[in-house]
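Please decode residue identities from the backbone states below.
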């Protein structure tokens, strides 16, 4: 594995201390392994206001900031208005190619305590596959489907990626069967690696060449997307952030609305005729297996894992907001390299680009507020 592919946090992730009292241990183990439910269904829309604020402690030359704005409008998300405030030159921008919207702020070297804050309103709902007997999904535009089979810098569709996908789908004939086979292959072969910083990088070629398929959501779901694309199935990563706790009690599938630092999460979609764009999230299956209990659960038949494994093929919970589906994004006015994906606040000054994976050093906060119907 090349050093550039991912940098690791110092030390292993620590587990919460359990009481040594026998009755307490037994109680904890029972709670951890008890059968769960996880069955999100489309229905009522949830409305959220999501606020991101960046404070630059000290300007060093010209400072530039790019904040992702929810840009997805679909059957499961409505991206609505945004408002912002800043003491810099600030405006809403779009990349003009991949439909990415963002707030751009620029601060001159003499600005004291630069800051920028944006609040976006979004509606979300849960997703589930189209059941037998229900109306089929409308067909997607052919050009759109072709676009989402393309290779990108971190998602090549030839070589080891294609040969791996071909082996995974052996015996599958329909697109739905192929997508299922790839989903199962990723769940069986990739794993959640807590030491990876942020959401990972999504360098799937290096993952496959090294045999190190441990990572986080941007790695594992990118692997799913790249394998699908390599055999002609349209697929895409969807970059976003968890907003509130899961309604089904899964702590690893939850967000803390008072502080969403580190709540960024990439999901995936694959296109199947009749179903349309199907929700996918093998990375969250891996997360539940590794982190939901004190024990690393290795079987998808485990009562904690099974409902998540079954549901996240075709469904997901609407406690999450999507920003965009972009890869290989060039940020306008940036002096740095293009970025593989865009779901973190990004900034740079004369010394270079800030570390988006270190919100306490970069000084950004993200919060969410659910707006209840009155």
């Amino acid at each position: 594995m090349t050093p550039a592919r991912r940098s690791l946090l110092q030390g292993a992730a620590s587990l919460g201390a359990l009481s040594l009292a026998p009755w307490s241990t037994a109680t904890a183990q029972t709670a951890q392994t008890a059968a769960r439910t996880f069955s999100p269904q489309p229905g009522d829309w949830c409305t959220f206001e999501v606020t991101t604020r960046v404070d630059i402690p000290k300007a060093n030359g010209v400072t530039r900031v790019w904040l992702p704005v929810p840009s997805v409008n679909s059957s499961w998300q409505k991206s609505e208005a945004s408002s912002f405030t800043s003491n810099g030159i600030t405006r809403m921008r779009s990349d003009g190619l991949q439909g990415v919207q963002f707030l751009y702020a620029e601060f001159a070297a003499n600005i004291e305590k630069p800051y920028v804050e944006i609040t976006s309103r979004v509606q979300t709902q849960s997703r589930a596959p189209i059941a037998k007997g229900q109306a089929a999904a409308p067909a997607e535009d052919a050009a759109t489907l072709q676009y989402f089979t393309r290779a990108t810098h971190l998602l090549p569709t030839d070589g080891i990626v294609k040969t791996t996908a071909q082996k995974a789908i052996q015996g599958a004939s329909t697109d739905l069967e192929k997508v299922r086979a790839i989903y199962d292959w990723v769940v069986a072969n990739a794993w959640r690696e807590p030491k990876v910083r942020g959401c990972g990088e999504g360098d799937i070629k290096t993952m496959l060449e090294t045999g190190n398929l441990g990572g986080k959501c941007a790695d594992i779901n990118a692997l799913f997307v790249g394998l699908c694309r390599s055999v002609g199935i349209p697929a895409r990563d969807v970059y976003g952030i968890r907003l509130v706790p899961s309604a089904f009690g899964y702590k690893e599938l939850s967000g803390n609305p008072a502080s969403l630092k580190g709540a960024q999460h990439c999901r995936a979609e694959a296109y199947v005729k009749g179903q349309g764009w199907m929700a996918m999230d093998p990375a969250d299956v891996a997360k539940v297996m590794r982190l939901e209990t004190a024990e690393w659960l290795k079987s998808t038949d485990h009562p904690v894992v099974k409902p998540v494994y079954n549901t996240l093929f075709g469904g997901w919970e609407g406690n999450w907001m999507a920003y965009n589906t972009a890869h290989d994004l060039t940020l306008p006015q940036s002096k740095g390299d293009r970025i593989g994906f865009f779901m973190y606040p990004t900034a740079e000054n004369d010394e270079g680009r800030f570390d988006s994976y270190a919100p306490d050093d970069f000084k950004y906060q993200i919060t969410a507020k659910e707006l209840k119907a009155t």
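Observation: The mean pLDDT is 90.
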